Structures are given as C-alpha cells and as structure tokens.
From TrEMBL:
Residues annotated as domain FAD-binding PCMH-type: 1-223
Species of origin: Stakelama saccharophila
KW Flavoprotein (keyword) present: yes
Pfam families: FAD_binding_5 (PF00941)
InterPro entries referenced in this protein's UniProt entry, alphabetically: CO_DH_flav_C, CO_DH_flav_C_dom_sf, Diverse_Substr_Oxidored, FAD-bd_PCMH, FAD-bd_PCMH-like_sf, FAD-bd_PCMH_sub1, FAD-bd_PCMH_sub2, Mopterin_DH_FAD-bd
UniProt name for this protein: Xanthine dehydrogenase family protein subunit M
Annotated coiled-coil segments of the chain: none
Length: 316
C-alpha cells in the first residue's frame, strides 16, 4: 500500500469541498472495497477523507410515505430495519444475500453503491484493463469471461457491476441524494446513477468530482410480494452469476431487475409490462440486445430460469 495523507471531515459539504481541492483524494467510510484495492495498488489515492463521523447514519420516514436512508447506515442495520423488512422486503433479502456478516457490519449504503467490479482482469495489474488504466485495452474480451457481462458491455469493457443491494434499489425506483463541492444538493434516479462503459469504462457513476453521496431515498411502498434470488457458484460469499429482484402483484403485474449480467442493475419498463406473460416473455424483452460471449451465453438462459422460479414462487 502506498503512503497517503488523511483527514476527518466534519460536514458533508466540507468533505465534498475538500475532495474537489484534491483530485487525488478518495472518500472512505467502511472501506470494505477501497482498502482491498489500495493493498493491491489498483487504487492509490494520495489523500483519504474519512466521512465515517458524519451524521448520515439514520433511516427516516419521508413526507411522501417513503424512507430516507443515510449514506452511512450499515448494510446490517438496513437489512434489519423493521420498515425495510415489512415494506421493502426485496431490499432486505438482497443485502442478506451479499457478503458475510462481518462485511455487512462495516459496509455502508453509500459505499455499497460505489463498489467496483470484480472482473479478474481489473484485479490483475499484469493485464490490460481500460477501467483500471484507460486506453490500455481489455483482456477480458478475448479472455475467460464466464462471470462477465452478457449485455450492456462495449468494445472497451465487459465488466459487470457486482452488487446485490443496487439491484433491489433499482426495482424499487430509488434515488441517490448527494452534495456537491459548492454545497448544492442533488437527487439522481438510481436508473441514471451507474453508467454503461461505452468508450470511458473508468467513469462508472454520474457523480461529479468531489460529489458525496449523503442518502438513498425510497418512494412509498409499492406493495406486492418481494423476491431476491441469487444464483452463484457456491452457497455463500460469492458474487452473482445472475440475480433477480422482483416485486410481483396479485394480478401478475410487477417489476423486475437483473444483477450479475450487465455493467449496472438491468431493468426495462417494456420488460415489466411482459410480466403477466411469464419469464420467457420478460427475459426476451429485457435481454433483446444481449451480446454474450461463448463463456457466458448460459447467463441468458439462467436469467429466464431464475425468473421462472421466482414467478412460480409468487404464484404460490
């Protein structure tokens, strides 16, 4: 790990302003992903801004009947909150499907959204990777790509977004609240928060330099039955090959998002409209533009079958 300087922020706006003054700085809270990347020198910030002491650790009711989740709420506390378990069960189930108990105790809501891909070529500094070193190339495209994106990738990158929580937040139509270095607040739909790689895979979110996540907001409960099914290579502590977050109403309508298959949580309203027609109709619409590799073509079928299992459970 390379040497770095360190400071503790006292206000969200102050943290954002400090980060804007130091382009080589990173925010740190739980550090569950960033510290690993620093040890491997994939991330090498010269300055860390500790935001862990900011008062962003509460879950509050909103005036419109939803919830406002502070960016520093731990994954453990969020999954256990009685309002989340009762009204947003897909979120609680997705969090509990990810990581270990120890990691969930440290990981935060804001940091979870910013976790970086687990593409093996991203983690290997001996391999070219446009996400780690822009312009160097992508070893994954001609390499072993079983875990990587079957849709949404580009000629520059086929890495997947690794998280579970964000897939549930996508199906819930969450929004991300931030503060900019000038102190102005912003609210970003989660649908627009994570970016597709295009020609700039190193730019992974809609955050601007110095911008700090302060909260995630959920609309009022959507009702319906909530599901999160995650298919992985072993029973615990593994990232998804494919995951399905779904809210299914009694009449068969609802919403669906996929994880593990694209560079961001994958959702389309056109596919939601197909839900009463079954899993094949939904996945045909949702993955119409899929461009899988030889190694990961199975993910298209796996997504349909995983959704089929969810819908069978919903029918009871």
């Amino acid at each position: 790990m390379r040497p770095f300087s360190f400071e503790r922020a006292t206000t969200p706006a102050g943290a954002a302003a400090a980060a804007a003054e130091r382009p080589d700085a990173k925010f740190i809270a739980g550090g569950t992903n960033l510290l690993d990347l620093m040890k491997l020198e994939i991330e090498a910030p010269a300055h860390l801004i500790d935001v862990g002491g900011l008062e962003l650790d509460r879950i509050e009711d909103t005036d419109d009947g939803g919830l406002r989740i502070g960016a520093l709420v731990s994954n453990t506390d969020l999954a256990a909150d009685k309002r989340v378990r009762r009204d947003y069960g897909v979120l609680s189930r997705a969090i509990l499907a990810g990581a270990s108990g120890q990691l969930r105790n440290r990981a935060t809501t804001g940091g979870n959204l910013l976790q970086r891909t687990r593409c093996p070529y991203f983690y290997d500094p001996n391999q070219p990777c446009n996400k780690r070193k822009p312009g160097s190339g992508c070893a994954a495209i001609a390499g072993y790509s079983r875990q990587l994106a079957a849709i949404g990738g580009s000629k520059a990158c086929i890495a997947t977004y690794p998280g579970d929580m964000a897939v549930a937040l996508r199906v819930l139509d969450a929004r991300v609240e931030t503060v900019r270095p000038d102190g102005q607040a912003r609210s970003i739909p989660l649908a627009d928060f994570h970016r597709l790689p295009g020609d700039t895979p190193q730019v992974e979110t809609a955050l601007q330099p110095g911008e700090l996540i302060t909260a995630v907001t959920l609309p009022k409960p959507a009702g319906g039955r909530h599901f999160y099914h995650k298919v992985r290579d072993r029973a615990s502590y593994a990232f998804a090959l494919v995951s399905v977050a779904a809210i299914v109403n009694a009449d068969g309508t609802g919403r669906v998002a996929l994880g593990g298959i694209a560079p961001k949580p994958w959702h389309s309203e056109a596919a939601d409209r197909e839900l009463p027609r079954g899993a094949r109709a939904v996945t045909t619409a949702l993955l119409a533009d899929a461009n899988p590799t030889r190694d990961n073509a199975f993910k298209v079928t796996l997504a349909e079958r995983t959704l089929g299992a969810v819908l069978a459970q919903a029918r009871g």
